[in-house]
Fold N-acetyl-D-glucosamine kinase.
Amino acid sequence: MKRYRNGEIWNFESQTPAARDGSAGVILGVDGGATSTVCVCLVAAMPSAGPLPESLPILSRAVAGCSNHNSVGETAARKTLEEVMAEALSKACSSRAAVQAVCLAVSGVNHPTDQQRILDWLRDIFPSHVKFYVENDSVAALASGTMGKLHGCVLIAGTGTIAYGFTEDGREARAAGAGPVLGDWGSGYGIAAQALTAVIRAHDGRGPQTKLTENILNILGLSSPDELIGWTYADPSWARIAALVPVVVSSAEDGDEVANKVLYVAVQELVDSVIAVVRRLRLCGEDGKDPFPLVMVGGVLEANKRWDIGKEVINRISKVCPGAHPIRPKP
Amino acid sequence: MKRYRNGEIWNFESQTPAARDGSAGVILGVDGGATSTVCVCLVAAMPSAGPLPESLPILSRAVAGCSNHNSVGETAARKTLEEVMAEALSKACSSRAAVQAVCLAVSGVNHPTDQQRILDWLRDIFPSHVKFYVENDSVAALASGTMGKLHGCVLIAGTGTIAYGFTEDGREARAAGAGPVLGDWGSGYGIAAQALTAVIRAHDGRGPQTKLTENILNILGLSSPDELIGWTYADPSWARIAALVPVVVSSAEDGDEVANKVLYVAVQELVDSVIAVVRRLRLCGEDGKDPFPLVMVGGVLEANKRWDIGKEVINRISKVCPGAHPIRPKP
C-alpha cells in the first residue's frame, strides 16, 4: 500500500483489529461533487448463506468538501477522497485490509483518461484484491432514484450541472457537465455568476437596476459592486460562488425582474440538457410518449420555496416528453 | 529596500555604478495586462535647463507575461512586475537608486484597496524618495492615444476588456473590466469561452453543428470535444483560453454561422461598454454629436483581417455617437 506523504490519514489502522478469516469485509461507496463528498461503508455480504437483504447495512458515513478536480485541482480533490474514505473506515472500526470493493462516483470524471488516473491512484492506496468502480457522479445519482437500475435520465443541478441518460440496452448519453467556462448556465455556479454579472452591469450602466445588488452586497458584507471583483477572484472555488443561489431565489420571489430572468434562463438550460439526452437515446420512444424515470437531484432543484426551480423544469419537460416520470430521491 | 525571497532579481545592481550626483535619474513605466507586461525605462529629465522634448528618451524596454492578480494570483503577478522592472533597469545599466518615479498601469486595479496593496509593496522594493503612480491599465492606454491628455474614452479588448472614460474636468467612469466570471463577454477570453461552449453544445445535442469543433480540436491536438473539459481546467490562465480567438475569427471568415454569432455578440458587448461610459460622462454632449477621442487597443481589436472586430465596433458606435473619433495607437 502507498505510503502517503500525509501518512496520518491512515494512522487509525494500527489500532484496528485485522480482518478475521471468514468475516464479511466491507464496501466503500463515495458520492463526490463540487460542494461536498459523502462516503458510506457497507457490509459487503452476509457471512451466512441465504438471500441478500434489500439494502446492505450501512456501518458508517463520512462527509467532506469538494472532490471535483476541475474545481479545486487534482491534489486537493484526491486528499479529500482519501480522507473521507479513511474516516468512513475508521468510524466503522474497519481498515483497508477488509475492503472488498470501492465504488467512486465523482463529478469531474468526463473522459476515460480521468477514470484511468483515479483507478491508478486507488490501486496505490488499497490492497491488490480490491475491486474498483469509477464513474461520473450522475451514475450514482440515477441509481439512487431507480433502486439501482440504470435506465432513464438523471439531472443533477447543484454547484455544477449535468444530464445523464441510459437505455435498457446499455447505451448512454450526457449533456452539459462541462463546468462554468464551458457554459453550464443551469448550475448553481451559473445562476450565481449571472446574478453577479447583472449587479456589475447595473452598476456600470449596461443593465437595469436590480434588488440583487443590495441583497448580494448585504450577504457578502461588501459596500460597493466594485468590491465584487476582488471578492470573486480571491478564491476560485465554484462552490463559494454557487452559495449565492438562495439570494437569487429570494430576490426573484420578492419580484425582482432581473433575478427572475436569471432563474428562467437557468431553467431553460436545465430543460435543454435533459431534452438533448432524451432525444439522443430516444428515451420517450417513437411517438414521444414512452414512460421513463427522470431522477432530479442537487441543491438547485431542492432548496426552493415559492420559486421552485425543480418544478419549473418538470413542467417544461413534461410538455415535450409527457412520459417523463420525475423522481426526487431523499437527500 | 526589501530583501526579496527570490533575491537574484536585483543581483545585477551590485555591478551597476552608483548614480552620480546631478545625474538625471530614470522613470519606470509599466503597462501590465492579462497576457503580457511591458516596462520601459525613461530618462527622468534632461540635466541641462531648457524646454522638455516632446517625448522622453527610452533607455530600455523589457517584456514579461501576465501581471493581472485576478488571473494568476497576487504572488505570480508581483513576481512578474518585479522581474520586468529589474530587467528594464538592468538593460538601461541603471539601478533602483537612480529611480525617481514608477508609474504602474496594470489591469486588475479596480478598487482603492487594490491600489493601496500595490503601493505598499512598491514602497518595500524602492528607496523612500521614489514617487509612485498606480492606475488601471486603461489610463495608460487612453494616454497612449491622446498624447497624454486624459480626455475621451478608451476601449481595451485583449485577453480581458474594459471601457474607461474621462471628462476634461476630471470625472471618470468605467464599464466591464470585471473578468470572465462577471460577464466580460467582449474580451478575448469571452469570445474563446463562447466558442468552446458552442463546441460542447454541438457535441451533446444542445446546439447546431459548427466548424469551430474541427478547427479548435485541430489546433489543440485533441481528438474529441470530451477532451476539451480536461484541457480547459488543466490551467486556469485567462490568456491560454483567449489565445483561441484567431481560430474563431478564421472560422467566421470561412462562413461558419456559429462563429459569426459569437463575434457579433462580442462586438455588441464591446459597444455596450463604450456607450455606457459615454452616456454617464456625457462625452458626446447634450445633442449627442460632440466630438471625443475613442482610443481602441488590444489584440481583439487589432489582429483581424477580413472579419475586423474593431471596425464593426466603430461602425456601431458611430451610429449612436457620430462625434466618436476612433484612434488606434500603434502597438
Chain A has two domains: 23-135, 149-331. Chain A has twelve helices and ten strands. The interface with chain B takes residues 69-71, 110-111, 113-114, 173-183, 193-194, 196-197, 200-201, 204-206, 226-230, 232-233, 236, 241, 272-273, 276-277, 279-280 of chain A (CB under 8 Å). The first strand of chain A starts at residue 26 and ends at 32.
